[in-house]
Amino acid sequence: MAHFTFVDLFAGIGGFRIPCEALGGECLAFAENSKSAISIYNENFSQTPNLGNVQAFGKINSDRPIDLITAGVPCQPWSVAGKNKGFKDPRGRLWFSTINIIKENRPKVFIIENVAGLSDPRNESNLNKIKDLFIEIGYTFKIFELSARDFGVVQDRVRVFILGFKKEAYLKRITSIEKNTKYKTIGNVLYPNINIEDTNSGFPQNFRIADVRGGDTTFHSWDLIQTSAEEKTACDLFLSKRRSLGKKIYGKDGAPLSINDIYKNTGIRIKKSVIISLIEKGILIEPKENRYDFKHSRYGLGVNIKYSKRDKKFEINPSNEGVFRILTLSSTEFPTITASRQYDYICTDIIKQSSNLKQYKASFVSEILKTNKYKIPNKSQKLSLQGFPEDFKTYTVSDSVAEFHIGNAVPPPVILNILKAIIKTEVFDI
């Protein structure tokens, strides 16, 4: 086992520290501002100095050389799903502080993690600025875009990792990061002591409940709740035409449409009584006078639909807290766990073996939806899905606070494999 010292910047709850210590690393200090993250961090690791705000220091007061600096620099400024402000965002400028700390302390190696958006073409000039700064301070580097799914984590969580070396000779020894050859399933991760057999491997392992266009295993609200043939036809028309006609007539993809918009472009007339009924059932809304849209058309929020055993039918709850995706236990890919509220659920039972897609979907409805055998992963399950060890503790904070930090964390198995590649270069042997 190698021995090296490291400093853990933007430490969060310890996603870097777990694999570092597992491979022989000794933490000299960490830097974290969030009181709740610090509480979780100190709950799980031996006490080391907290350097606090990275903008408040440069040279670290240590009587020992620092071999490695790790940093999960805040990702929001580079997320293409967000405002994408880059260095205009104060959090984006934390890169300058991070690079200054590397410059002042001259570690043999650094690992920096960020969102995949950092390498998006829209951030090209910002990334080039970061590259130039690394070169200025005398470091050579490689940039890897890695999915956690390739390292035993059941998420297609793609992130950018920048590996920098003080001596180029060691960097040249890294050509790739070794990946796992077999994907784990959600069942493997959450129930490791139970053999969950995949009986429907030929079919998609995720179902969506959303009033947007989707794949073979997408259910719309009108597929589940009681609707007439005319109502289903109306919904299908609005769904198939809302993008093209919205753009053509109103200059906006997905703009609300009127009955007349549909008639003029398809020749099919929808009765006003059908529209009124769909509004009453909670499927359509009238955001603009005489123009209609789906109430649950925002991608990712799903539909809050429940099965009433008493009335033996599905009903839409008026709340916007929906069910978007339901993953089977055989799925090898849970959606990326984030710090914000998600609408992704996991089946709590397996679906019986099906001979065709139609039967498979019917079995899902009868065995999972109608029996409410699905749930949002709890705190412990999210830790497992992120690759944290079973004994990791979060007792000092509420579950909601813990889940926020879990969503922000770097999955330890990814860092473990990156570190193994670094250790093989023998950079820590000198």
Describe the structure.
- There is one protein chain.
- With 430 residues, the protein is of the alpha/beta class.
- The chain has helices spanning 17-22, 35-44, 94-105, 124-136, 168-171, 186-190, 221-224, 229-250, 259-266, 272-280, 357-369, 379-385, 399-408, 412-424, and strands spanning 4-9, 25-31, 68-71, 109-115, 140-147, 158-165, 206-209, 218-219, 284-288, 291-294, 305-308, 313-316, 325-327, 344-347, 374-375.
- Helices cover 32% and strands 17% of the residues.
- The longest helix is centred in the middle third of the chain and has 22 residues, at 229-250.
- The mean pLDDT is 90.
Features of this protein?
430 residues, 14 helices, five-stranded mixed sheet, 15 strands, single chain, alpha/beta, Rossmann fold, 17% strand, six-stranded mixed sheet
- CA-based gyration radius: 25 Å
Ends distance: 14 Å
Give the number of helices: 14
CATH topology of the largest domain: Rossmann fold
Named at the architecture level, the CATH assignment of the largest domain is 3-Layer(aba) Sandwich
Unreliable runs, pLDDT <50, ≥5 residues? Answer: none
Order of helices and strands: EHEHEHEHEEHHEEHHHHEEEEEEHEHHH
| Class inferred from helices and paired strands | alpha/beta
The CATH homologous superfamily of the largest domain is termed: Vaccinia Virus protein VP39
Strand content: 15-25%
Order of strands across the biggest sheet?
2-1-3-4-6-5
Fold blueprint:
Layout: E1 4-9, H1 17-22, E2 25-31, H2 35-44, E3 68-71, H3 94-105, E4 109-115, H4 124-136, E5 140-147, E6 158-165, H5 168-171, H6 186-190, E7 206-209, E8 218-219, H7 221-224, H8 229-250, H9 259-266, H10 272-280, E9 284-288, E10 291-294, E11 305-308, E12 313-316, E13 325-327, E14 344-347, H11 357-369, E15 374-375, H12 379-385, H13 399-408, H14 412-424
Parallel strand pairs: 1-2, 1-3, 3-4, 7-8, 13-14
Antiparallel strand pairs: 4-6, 5-6, 7-13, 9-10, 11-12, 14-15
